[in-house]
Automatic annotation (TrEMBL), chain A:
This is Actin-related protein 5. CDD domains: ASKHA_NBD_Arp5 (cd10211). It comes from Chilo suppressalis (Asiatic rice borer moth). It comes from the Eukaryota. Residues 288-327 form a coiled coil.
From TrEMBL, chain B:
This is Vps72/YL1 C-terminal domain-containing protein. SMART domains: YL1_C. The keyword Nucleus applies. Residues 73-102 form the Vps72/YL1 C-terminal domain. It comes from Chilo suppressalis. The lineage of its organism: Eukaryota, Metazoa, Ecdysozoa, Arthropoda, Hexapoda. The keyword Transcription regulation applies. InterPro entries: INO80C/Ies6 (IPR029525), Vps72/YL1_C (IPR013272).
Length: 662, 124
């Protein structure tokens, strides 16, 4: 029995408010924000590590709608990033400013910025007096950049902003030269970006719209479908943990999964993951006995109560009889006056009435006496066993054999039932062997002569052609239930922790494989290897060789064990015979973008790469100052306006926002 | 536009603990008119509609090409290579044992597997 992996269920720790030192406050220190769709990393450019690392998520608890309009609705506190300690509790209220890898929801972005600046304890009046380095998506739409600049310059009055691409920052941080093929595996996308002599060849870069979040969802759904019983215990965060800690990429997927077909390989390599569970109080074996005891006790007490009641009633009746007899004596003595007086109290009208009443009471007494006698004998008798229940032998060895026998019987019955069902199902459809057989029996029945029915077994022919459940199956069904109950009661209980284990076989390599085969989740895009091949084709052989010799892999999702080997294998397959290739992994796949951006902010030329407030007002919100790690700036052209229909407005202004009721 | 201005006025006193803030740019107080944000898809459509220069590289233009390799079939329930498909549920399976399992699966599970593979649409 190999070890069972236990889920850790990581909890986040709420961020502290960092100190806003005077050196920062008056030093005009740039602030570096790696605004990723998975995590946001924030820190001052003079520090080695980012101060804040949190998931770019916002949880706004729902408003209490039950309250009346009279009192103003109380806005519940908004939780951001690491404030969300239990993410599963607010799973359905989660928001993010991202749509894929692009920021589109700027109200959420503003909340996140508030969170960032307040946790850095910036306390200057009505401004954030620091230049900002912010990462943005590769080929970020101008519209989104415009809104981001609006936010930073107008809401926070920052002096300057510089935008860069995370994967390019990461590449420069790793100092791998100025020609490389960047493979950036992110949370929503995988980018393949060729860089030649420091120039990003944007037109030949490609993006696969698939990333870590898709893998998490895929694994989550896969496990839920495999274990429908634990559908609530298998949460997104647990799927994420499994993906982070137990998944890897197969070197040769086809070969790897073929290995899993053998049961021995499965047994030796399966990963068992323990879900948390509550140990049920051992109600199975012990209480069965106890329950029987209790039932017996109850029955005994009930009998006692009944006996007591009967005796009480008997005494009552005898008392009444005595009184009635006394009255009768009165009349026999000829004391009419006293008799009349007495019967008034007893609600008796005449002597006949009295006679009848006496007879009645006598009968009642007789009946009661009989009942008491019968109850007394019943108590002495040993109580009969409830019928219909199968009793196993008490001897443990015999019990063992009995159990195996019962199990075998049970299985046999089950398979017989299955076979019958299958036959019946086949009979309904045409052109099956069973249907043909049925027709044959029917035709033989039609042709049968007078001797049909001489033997009882002849009548079984009707059973075999009946399409409905026959008496055989009913009898079998009852027997099956009986056996099932007996087995359930007497089989040794398997410990309940095994019921709460997930067995991972191919799943840990199946989820990351989505990178290479998006078709597994119905995505028709080419996989990572195929897209790389596609990108290579756009370059001449010399450039191809340069790129292949410097394939740089970065991004949080690139940390799967085996990715480097897999990429090397794929390159060997796609590159011409006997050419060289090299795969370089980022030193710190998820943080190198921040480190790169920090170095960028610390360089002497940084001021030249910043968009200042003046430039923002002059050039417009979408304006971008290009540098080695930035996107290329293409000024948005004026939209084609149809002058005949509408008066021409300011063509450069992006259309007015729609404002609607909430 | 008037509504929008009104909103920002109302939210001006919003949480003065953020001293660094000049104004609320996009945040609106609850109960006020909410701005609708365009989805990425809408943004891209708007972007495509503009008369760009030929050399401009836009978000939509760097999408990965469609795959040209034949897609491999894997068993839905185990992930093994699957040469067969159950005609009833349309699930892929790899051997006899899996077939019996597939046949015993309830509808919601088979539908879930098909959805996971993106094969639940009637077309295609």
């Amino acid at each position: 029995m190999e070890s069972v992996l236990v889920l850790k269920d990581y909890k986040t720790v709420p961020d502290i408010v960092h100190e806003y030192e005077p050196s920062l406050k008056f030093g005009h220190i740039p602030l570096v924000i790696d605004n990723g769709s998975y995590q946001c990393r924030v820190g001052w450019s003079i520090y080695d590590e980012p101060q804040l690392i949190f998931k770019n998520l916002i949880a706004r608890p729902r408003k209490d709608r039950s309250k009346k309009d009279a009192e103003p609705p109380v806005t519940p506190p908004i939780q951001i990033g690491n404030d969300i300690v239990n993410i599963e509790a607010v799973r359905f209220q989660l928001k993010t400013q991202f749509d894929k890898n692009v920021v589109t929801h700027f109200e959420a972005q503003e909340q996140v910025c508030d969170y960032i600046f307040s946790h850095l304890a910036i306390d200057s009046e009505s401004c954030v007096p620091h230049p900002i380095v912010m990462t943005e998506a590769f080929v970020n739409p101008n519209y989104c950049r415009q809104l981001m600049s609006e936010l930073l310059f107008e809401a926070y009055a920052v002096p300057a902003v510089s935008y860069g691409v995370d994967s390019l920052f990461s590449m420069y941080k790793n100092e791998i030269g100025d020609t490389a093929l960047i493979v950036n595996c992110g949370y929503h996308t995988i980018h393949i970006i060729p860089v030649i002599k420091g120039q990003v060849v944007e037109e030949h870069a490609r993006r696969i719209n698939l990333g870590g979040s898709e893998m998490i969802c895929y694994l989550h759904k896969l496990l839920q479908l495999k274990y429908p019983v634990h559908v609530n215990a298998i949460t997104m965060s647990r799927a994420e943990e499994i993906l982070h800690e137990h998944c890897s990429l197969a070197l040769d997927y086809q070969e790897e999964i073929r290995k899993w077909a053998s049961p021995e390989y499965y047994e030796a390599n399966v990963k068992r993951i323990q879900l948390p569970f509550v140990q049920t109080t051992s109600s199975s074996t012990l209480t069965a006995e106890q329950q029987k005891e209790r039932k017996k006790e109850m029955a005994r007490r009930l009998l006692e109560i009944n006996a007591r009641k009967r005796e009480e009633r008997l005494a009552e009746d005898e008392e009444q009889l005595n009184q009635l007899l006394a009255i009768q004596e009165l009349i026999e003595d000829g004391d009419t006056d006293e008799f009349n007086e007495a019967i008034k109290g007893f609600d008796i009208k005449s002597y006949e009435d009295l006679q009848r009443q006496i007879a009645n009471v006598n009968m009642r007494i007789e009946k009661n006496k009989q009942r008491i006698a019968s109850a007394a004998t019943a108590e002495d008798m040993p109580e009969p066993r409830p019928t219909g229940r199968i009793q196993p032998p008490t001897d443990p060895e015999a019990l063992e054999t009995w159990l195996t026998e019962t199990r075998a019987k049970y299985c046999e019955l089950l398979s017989r039932r299955e076979a019958r069902r299958a036959r019946r199902a086949a009979m309904v459809r045409r052109r099956t062997a069973a249907a043909a057989e049925r027709m044959r029996v029917i035709s033989r029945l039609a042709a049968a002569g007078d001797e049909f029915g001489n033997q009882d077994s002849d009548w079984d022919a009707y059973k075999s052609i009946s399409r409905d459940a026959d008496s055989d199956s009913e009898a079998d069904g009852e027997r099956l239930m009986e056996l099932e109950e007996a087995l359930r009661e007497h089989e040794p209980q398997t410990s309940s922790n095994q019921h709460h284990q997930l067995h991972l076989a191919i799943e840990p390599i199946r989820a990351p494989e989505l990178m290479f085969q998006p078709s597994m989740m119905g995505n028709l895009e080419a996989g990572l290897a195929e897209t790389m091949e596609y990108v290579f084709k756009h370059f001449n052989p010399e450039e191809q060789l340069l790129l292949a010799n410097n394939v740089f892999v970065t991004g949080g999702c690139s940390q799967f064990p085996g990715l480097k080997e897999r990429l090397e294998r794929e390159l060997l397959e796609m590159r011409p015979f006997q050419t060289t290739h090299r795969v370089v992994m980022a030193k710190n796949a998820s943080l190198d973008a921040w480190y790169g951006a920090r170095d960028f902010a610390g360089s002497n030329e940084f001021e030249n790469w910043c968009i200042t407030k003046e430039e923002y007002y002059e050039m417009g919100g979408e304006y971008l100052k290009e540098h080695h790690a930035s996107n290329r700036y293409y000024k948005s052209p004026a939209p084609i306006t149809d002058n005949t229909l509408a008066p021409a407005g300011d063509a450069n202004v992006v259309k007015e926002e729609i404002v609607i009721d909430c | 536009m008037f509504v929008f201005l009104f909103c920002s006025k109302m939210t001006a006193e919003y949480d003065k603990s953020f001293r660094f803030k000049k104004e609320n740019k996009f945040l609106v107080k609850s109960g006020c008119k909410k701005r609708m944000w365009r989805s990425l898809k809408q943004i891209l459509t708007a972007e495509r509609a503009l008369p760009w220069h030929n050399e401009a590289v836009l978000y939509y233009s760097i999408n990965a090409p469609p795959t040209f390799k034949p897609t491999k079939k894997y068993s839905d329930i185990s992930g093994l290579p699957a040469p067969y498909m159950d005609r009833h549920s349309k699930l892929f399976y790899s051997n006899v044992e899996e077939f019996t399992t597939v046949r015993s699966l309830p509808m919601d599970i088979t539908a879930g597997y098909l959805q996971l593979r993106g094969a639940n649409t009637i077309v295609g």
